[in-house]
Amino acid sequence: MGSVDASERTATGWAARDADGHLSPYTYTLRKTGPEDVLVKVKYCGICHTDIHQAKNHFGFSKYPMVPGHEVVGVVEEVGPEVSKYTVGDVVGVGGIVGCCRNCRPCNANDEQYCSKKIWTYNDVYTDGRPTQGGFSSAMVVDQKSQPGWRRSRRRRCCAPAYSPLKHFGLMAPGLRGGILGLGGIGHLGVKLAKAMGHHVTVISSSDKKRAEAMDELGADAYVVSSDGDQMAAAADSLDYIIDTVPVDHPLEPYLALLQLNGKLVLMGVTPAPLSFLSHLVMMGRKTITGSFIGSMQEMEEVLHFFADKGLTSQIEVVKMDYVNQALERLERNDVRYRFVVDVAGSNIEDAA
Question: Quick check: pTM over 0.70?
Answer without folding.
Answer: yes
